[in-house]
Amino acid sequence: MKPAEKQREVLIVDDHPLIRKGLCDAIGETHDLKVCDEAGGLHEALEAVARRMPDMILLDLNLKDGNGWDFIKRVRAERGDVPILVVSVCDEEIYAARLLQAGANGYLMKDASIGQVIGAIRKVLRGDIAVSDAIASRLIRTATSANGKRGDAAELDRLSDRELQVFELLRGEKSNREIADYLGISQKTIGTYKARLMEKLGVRTTSELMSYLQHASVSGKDEPSTGHATGAIDFQ
Question: Could you report the per-residue pLDDT of 22-43, keeping only the tens digit for each?
Fold first, then answer.
């Protein structure tokens, strides 16, 4: 008799308990996957990685005491081989390529169906990259053409990872103090980042920056912020 296939263990990292429950329930219905642990914060998640040694990590960028960017860097430094699939409300056209470069193995928006999420989990476990067709096409265009990046996406590509985080938090109408607390840096440093944003985005005043933030869109639709948004995966 052929032995039963070993279920691959998934660590879910998301600051929304309802999202975690929905993912746990959906993964629990598969034959080849199981949830080994879940976490809502950065430090809790890092402890779970060390304790459980999961086969892969399903990660939201927004965490209670930090963010997914820092989590990816820490995991890659401490356990470089574990696959990480990011599932986020943040615009994939702005973030997907950047997070793949940072060490993620895939990126999906939270409006993906649960079937798409399960499929992407299996894909990264096979050693492949999991992104939407639109992002795959953009990555190919960018790799083969110097003119592959246009519009807001091209301008935002000039920002550092931290500058991009500050950009999205400002667009989510966070105050300097809220951003400083969220990122664990001083308000003075936030002011420095805002000045850098203005220079790189070609705006001269704070009001022009805020106007840019309000209208910045790659796909022509309103985009969610990196604040603790209420976007949710479609579990149907």
Answer: 999 999 999 999 999 999 999 9
